[in-house]
């Protein structure tokens, strides 16, 4: 990541909004924001291959779900946060991953400039690519600051997206079983 470019950009924005970039409270802001972007955009340089490749054998091939995984991401239109919860279910095909690795996979794709739909699909596709389960389903529920603090200003409005792959596709019974697990 080019921190100098980020710093320069932040300085320009501050000047653009009419701020004095040299006043005490702002003097370190460009550097601070550059460091912050390194953290909140860390997923740009990663894929979920590393967390999802650490697998172990499992005899039980029933659905396993991890729900209420809190995430923070940034919308690519306004560069404002959207945050909420991701829920992931998969049906293994002999191999499972440690449950913390599911959370790490979400983090990789959340820490980028994103669209909620794309985030949802990228998580599901990473499971398909690196774990090869019989099926996977991802639900994401989020509140977008670009919808709440500006624009249409509708605090509390939630955007819900989901993606199905493998045996979850066109299988309402399986999908509903996961919806019930999530909303109980
Ligand atoms: N589908 C989808 N839309 C998003 C997401 N994040 C933000 N948006 C929307 O992206 C759209 C961008 O629309 P524009 O008309 O280009 O931008 P704008 O003038 O700031 O739009 P308003 O928010 O309506 O004021 C808006 O409708 C946002 O609500 C997302 O994750 N998925
Ligand atoms: Zn937005």
Automatic annotation (TrEMBL):
One Pfam short name: GTP_cyclohydroI
Give the residues the record marks as binding Zn(2+).
75, 78, 146
Q: Which gene encodes it?
A: folE
Q: Where is the GTP cyclohydrolase I domain?
A: 6-182
The reactions it catalyses are: GTP + H2O = 7,8-dihydroneopterin 3'-triphosphate + formate + H(+)
* Assembly notes: Homopolymer.
Instruction: Specify the species.
Output: Hespellia stercorisuis DSM 15480
Which NCBIfam families does the entry link to? folE, PRK09347.1-2, PRK09347.1-3
Supply the SUPFAM superfamilies for this chain.
Answer: Tetrahydrobiopterin biosynthesis enzymes-like
UniProt keyword list: GTP-binding, Hydrolase, Metal-binding, Nucleotide-binding, One-carbon metabolism, Zinc
- Cellular component GO terms held in the UniProt record: cytoplasm
Q: What is its EC number?
A: 3.5.4.16
In Swiss-Prot or TrEMBL terms, this protein is called GTP cyclohydrolase 1
Q: Which superkingdom?
A: Bacteria
Give, as in the UniProt entry, the pathway in which the protein acts.
Cofactor biosynthesis; 7,8-dihydroneopterin triphosphate biosynthesis; 7,8-dihydroneopterin triphosphate from GTP: step 1/1
Q: Which GO molecular-function terms appear in the entry?
A: GTP binding; GTP cyclohydrolase I activity; zinc ion binding
GO BP annotations, alphabetical order: one-carbon metabolic process; tetrahydrobiopterin biosynthetic process; tetrahydrofolate biosynthetic process
Instruction: Give the first-level EC class, as a single word.
Output: hydrolase
Which family is it part of? Answer: Belongs to the GTP cyclohydrolase I family.
* InterPro entries reported in the protein's UniProt record: GTP-CH-I_C/QueF, GTP-CH-I_N, GTP_CycHdrlase_I, GTP_CycHdrlase_I_CS, GTP_CycHdrlase_I_dom
